[in-house]
Design brief:
The chain is α+β, with helices and mostly antiparallel strands and about 750 residues long. It contains 26 helices and 26 strands. Helices cover about 50% and strands about 20% of the residues. The strands form five sheets. It has a seven-stranded mixed beta sheet, sandwiched between helices.
Length: about 750
């Protein structure tokens, strides 16, 4: 698929039972005039069509293949409640014939297959048994035969449906009427089973839509107020006398900037920012955090989270279609559409495997009778002819279990991650994380809380030797604040907060021409002065600072970060800032070590003394300090060369090059938008607590995929051998395929229940 093409049409396709159906639709739609390219994900049912073809034309082609489609915007967004498999069969037009066929084939199975095994003579005449079996074949097989013909005519493809149709017709030719009907019934039920299980996996993430309420209490003006009409010239519209009042409104009608009233215990309907009030909020459905989070003025809240004991006034920051839950669902669906390496390998193998088996079946039917005089048809009731064995191979060739073995596990794992606060942006990253043996971490805001505070201000004109605030030190703090208020770095926020506490934050106008010096500092113009704030290493190259050089070194050795300040080339003093390790960083890193991660590494732009102190508290033994963003990239590449696959965890703008360079980039929820956009995996919680869960989930997914592939291929090999030896039957082969499909599906769906370990 070309990344330069713009999607013209996105449709939701329903009724697809397997990945083979999806490929058939892809090929057929791609043949339409005006279609440059298209892709259909069996995992999500979304069809992307690139080119000038009209949506109506694409929908007509999909419907001609026996499926249905609707534009993305008009398709149902709300999840349906899960149905039992039996109810699911009766709810789908294509599955009802399979149920009816199962009823019609029952006499044939009983009187033609089971009773003879125990020596009981059939109570029905042979013609009656054959009639029931042929009726079952006609009812259950008609949708399969029709689909095979449409795929051949519109897609130029001989697929699974064609194989089963050929096998059924061949069975009729040799008089195996019951087997022909039973094969088709079992195959149709197996296809419905695949569709049912994939629907359950899809709805696992879309069920998050139910978390956000459909209505909210919003503050709006009284409209056409009957109590005040005619008063002071008021003739209608917003009432100037009543002011704002509480109203219940659908979330779809709410607008950015409106105010919501969130009562104690109420579920929050929209993403927003707290304007007044304080409360603890349960964010577990969104971030996976087990404990409620304290929220006060200025804090963000997410749609779907549950308010605690306090009342909140919240300003809406995102529309309903763009809130956190909606974005999560879109990201997860896009991730499910990206095939992982193992899945692509299985798909390619399945495409070559089916025609190969068809050719092998033809050779099995022809070569032994032609060269060795073996019977082409069955000479007696106890011997299988080679035509029958060839038909068995066609049935065995159905790759349903193999094709579904990978996607059902990946979709389930991605959905489970999203429901527990981990967003995988693609199946490839889910796989890649499972193979990681080295993880590198940024320090500030990742291992540490990212909420550092000012512990010392020391001006060159200080009158108290830094023991107490003085006018020169406050002036230094105010000057630095004028520049730092333009920065998003946690250290900059610490400076601004301290200036606000000292009452000097507005002494200077905000700086102009502010420029970030990546990984080293920031510069700006304040009242005509060129102010520079940065690290000790930066000032060693630019501004002499001998007066405080030793003090800065001592602060660094004590685990503090000295921010040196200069103006117009003159050193003015320093501000020492200290950060603390997140409360759960050490336990998270300990879990990663227990999980077998070979090396945990810190990559930071901070000085070595501070880095080592933080590393010791967090439990990291390998530290690379004083790194610029490009140095972090080189460090990631060196780790990959030495150890193999590397994951990088960060939260800041200066981490984005390293996140992109790593095999897996991981951002945390409180990080910058650039880091979250660049990363391959996002931890919704603002800490590392979900990282061990993400690693265990990815490894569990890999194990599940390998087991599923082994079961699928192993079952094929066993029945190949039985067929060639004349010991199998067609209905046993298809029953085995359906059985293995059920096993691998249930094994994959187990990942939906994969959850973080409880302390």
């Amino acid at each position: 698929m070309s990344d330069n093409l713009t999607p013209e049409t996105v449709l939701r396709v329903t009724g697809i039972d397997c990945a083979e159906c999806a490929r058939s639709i892809e090929r057929s739609v791609a043949r339409l005039e005006g279609v440059q390219a298209c892709s259909l994900s069996f995992e999500t049912g979304r069809l992307h069509v690139y080119g000038r073809a009209a949506p109506e034309q694409v929908i007509a082609r999909v419907q001609a293949l026996g499926y249905d489609a609707a534009p993305e915007a008009s398709s149902a967004r709300a999840p349906s409640h899960p149905l039992s498999f039996v109810r699911f069969l009766f709810s789908r037009r294509n599955s009802v014939p399979a149920v009816l066929g199962a009823v019609l084939i029952a006499p044939g199975v009983l009187f033609d297959e089971l009773l003879p095994l125990v020596g009981v003579t059939s109570l029905l005449p042979d013609w009656a048994v054959s009639a029931f079996s042929l009726a079952a074949l006609a009812v259950a097989g008609w949708p399969v035969l029709r689909s095979a013909w449409r795929a051949l005519r519109l897609s130029r493809q001989i697929g699974i449906n064609a194989l089963m149709s050929i096998a059924a017709v061949g069975a009729i030719v040799i008089g195996a009427h019951t087997e022909a009907g039973l094969v088709m019934v079992l195959f149709a039920i197996g296809e419905a089973l695949e569709s049912y299980t994939m629907q359950r996996a899809r709805e696992a993430i879309r069920s998050l839509m139910e978390l956000a309420p459909q209505e909210a209490t919003v503050l709006r003006p009284c409209i056409d107020c009957k109590s005040h009409l005619g008063q002071d010239g008021y003739i209608g519209g917003p009432c100037p006398f009543c002011g704002l009042e509480e109203q219940r409104a659908p979330v779809s009608d709410l607008k950015v900037g409106e105010m919501l009233v969130i009562r104690p215990g109420e579920r929050i309907a929209m993403d927003g920012r707290v304007i007044s009030g304080a409360s603890s909020v349960n964010q577990a459905p969104i971030t996976g955090e087990s404990a409620p989070v304290e929220k006060t003025v200025g804090d963000k809240v997410f749609a779907g989270s549950v308010n605690g004991a306090g009342a909140l006034m919240v300003e809406i920051t995102h529309l309903a279609a763009d809130n956190t839950i909606s974005r999560m669902i879109r990201l997860v669906e896009e991730a499910q559409e990206q095939r992982a390496p193992t899945q692509r390998l299985v798909d390619r193998f399945a495409q070559r495997y089916t025609p190969t088996v068809v050719a092998l079946a033809a050779l099995v039917a022809v070569v032994p009778p032609a060269l060795f005089g073996a019977p082409f048809l069955s000479p007696d009731a106890h011997t299988q002819g080679w035509l029958y064995r060839a038909l068995e191979l066609l049935v065995i060739a159905c790759p349903c279990a193999l094709v579904i073995s990978t996607p059902v596990a990946l979709v389930s794992a991605i959905a489970s991650g999203a429901r527990n606060g981990v967003l995988f942006k693609g199946s490839a990253y889910l796989e890649a994380l499972g193979r990681v043996r080295v993880i590198a971490f940024d320090k500030t805001g990742t291992l540490t809380a990212g909420n550092p505070s000012v512990v010392r201000v020391r001006s060159t004109r200080c009158t108290t030797h830094g023991e107490a605030p003085c006018e020169p030190c406050d002036d230094l703090l105010a000057l630095a604040t004028a520049v730092e208020r333009r920065s998003e770095h946690p250290l900059a926020r610490a400076v601004v907060i301290q200036a606000e506490q000292n009452g000097v934050s507005d002494k200077y106008r905000p700086a102009e021409s502010v420029t970030a010096i990546a990984g080293r500092g920031v510069a700006g113009v304040v009242n005509g002065q060129h102010v520079l704030i940065g690290s000790h290493a930066l000032f060693e190259q630019t501004v002499p600072h001998d007066v405080h050089c030793e003090e800065a070194h001592i602060a660094a050795r004590n685990g503090q970060t000295p921010l040196l300040v200069g103006a117009d080339g003159t050193y003015l003093g320093y501000i020492a800032v200290a950060d603390t390790v997140r409360s759960n960083s050490r336990s998270a890193l300990a879990e990663l070590k227990q999980a077998g991660v070979e090396r945990l590494v810190m990559l930071t732009g901070d000085n070595l003394a501070v880095a080592r102190q933080i590393a010791e508290v967090a439990g990291i033994t390998h530290v690379h300090a004083d790194l610029l963003p490009e140095d972090k990239v080189q460090a990631v590449r060196a780790l990959r060369q030495q150890f193999g696959a590397v994951a990088m965890v960060g939260d800041g703008i200066n981490d984005t090059p390293a996140l992109a360079a790593a095999d897996v980039g991981i951002s945390i929820g409180g990080g910058t938008a650039q880091a979250i956009e660049t990363a391959d995996i996002t931890l919704m919680a603002n800490d590392l607590s979900k990282l061990p869960f993400a690693l265990r989930l990815s490894r569990a997914a890999l194990r599940t995929i390998h087991v599923n592939i082994g079961l699928s291929v192993g079952a094929k090999l066993v029945f190949f051998a039985l067929a060639l030896a004349g010991l199998g039957t067609m209905w046993m082969a298809v029953l085995a395929d359906v059985g293995v499909s059920l096993l691998v599906t249930l094994n994959g769906l187990r990942l939906l229940g994969f959850s973080p370990r409880t302390p």
